[in-house]
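Box 4.2: Ligand-aware structure prediction
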Amino acid sequence: MLKTHNCGELRSGDAGKEVTLAGWLNRRRDHGGLIFLDLRDRFGITQVTVNSEEQPAAHRNASEARGEFVVQVKGRVHQRPPGFENPDLATGMIEVLADEVTILTESRTPPFYLSGSKSDDVDEALRLKYRYLDLRRPRLAQNIILRHNIVRYIREFFYAHDFLEIETPILLKSTPEGARDFVVPSRVHAGKFYALPQSPQQMKQLLMVAGMERYFQIARCFRDEDLRADRQPEFTQLDLEMSFVDVDDIRALIEALMIDLSGKVSPKRIQQLPFPVISYDEAMEKYGIDRPDLRFGCQLFNITDAVAESGFSVFQNAATSGGQVKGVVYPGGADLSRRELDGFGDFVKQYGAKGAAWIGVTGAPGADGRYPADALRSQITKFLSQAEIDAIMQRSGAKQGDLILIVADKSSVVAQSLANLRLDIGKRANLIDPDVLAFCWVLDFPLLEYNEDEKRWEAVHHPFTSAKDEDWDRLESHPGEVKAKAYDIILNGWEIGGGSIRIHRSDNQARLFKRIGLSEEEIDARFGHIIEAFQYGAPPHGGIALGIERVVALYADAPSIRDVMAFPKTAMGTDLMLEAPSPVDERQLAELHIRVREEDLKKLTES
Ligand code: ASP
């Protein structure tokens, strides 16, 4: 070994030991006769002191070393004199007095600072191009280490619960239902293609038919979706499936996993046990979103019925044309400046709303507990009756000093506007406790939703999800009212996982495929294998998948999932280090029986 210890482990108790360290030069301070080298490896940083009088050769080498040179040091551990300790370093009580300093490899000057305050705001594109340098920085390295530990604990948990870890193919068949598939051309079978799995969904269900009973996998998934800031074309899921279970069994298992994991990797406290359970309808009503952040209150309130005859036409129109009038309270916001109040209107415009009405509760209620109009600062109260004001005050629960914000529009616009406004208020009014993990389950999702563009019903989760037993009868007659045996697990407002109890009868599976507009031929071509498999004794089964990147990012407090991936792609799906995707040469294409359509490329570059 080229080192006897790592750079993070030496302590006072090691004083006097002869050691050899090796790592990267984090920083060098030259005090003439004395040179201090901060040596860094994955485990930490150790200060090395080189004295020119005692070790002239070592001193000469040390003076030539530069940032990111790979350096080996032989020397003796020395307790630092009182007053010279560094409490910020785990090794800060000691230093190593060098006898020998050897430069193992030189380094070019890195394109950005890897340590010190200037390392904090380096352009991400540059960091991605030199990812191997970026990963040397402790903050990123710690995320990768945390990810390793989380995956290890997950594996241990499932081994202990009798699960089998089974790999499923990466080269599959294209059966798009949801996102777009990435396809891989076959050389041997001209004109034919494999597809990369969007998830191992069908394979894990077939493993249940095969009698494996408890399966899990840390599975790579690929989705050719339109890219968004925090989306990656490939990502990793904890994927699992169980036979002979119902919704509560999956929930109990995953709850146990998350409690175990949180205890092992996070100093934060779980806000509520058992995890709260909210129906989809309730989540939409109270939070405007199906992944509510429960770290704070500020539930939405609904006054649609109370303003149907309002003198304020914006409310009245929305209430009588099938829309909604709902609001949220900004605690203590009554005397925000006029500019800030107008800012809320601009904020909700991003989500399609025309504006946000505001009412500041500046005065106190009367003896009867009701708020007169002159206790309220607002441009709209003059159009409202006392009964309407009473309804707003009661349903919002606002108190003197609070601000009420109301949006009137189509339900979907109201929901999006207020869900985001609520989060904004949570941040601005400092209502979010950074030290809690607020888990919850969202249940009773609709099974189907109507796709206006394609004029057909489609599965909300995926087409293998079962309807609730009592709802099967209404699949054909009232598809929009059918609820699914589906569940999502939410952490601090992020959906970290979702799953369902599956359809396990071939007749019901065929019914569902027909309901979402597939013809007999399409069903046969794309899903014949699963319909057939279900004819050979499929056990009742269900499962779930959790997004590993999201889970790690939440535990790491990382701003982006890219920060918890070793080699992520940009938001545009490119790898800046490898410069992928890239053209391949003509011969490769010819072997694959593929021709790039130059006319398409021309059109694309022109547009
Ligand atoms: N395959 C689903 C997904 O990737 C999860 C599941 O239903 O188990 O979202």
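In the box above, the bound molecule is aspartic acid. The chain has a mean pLDDT of 96.
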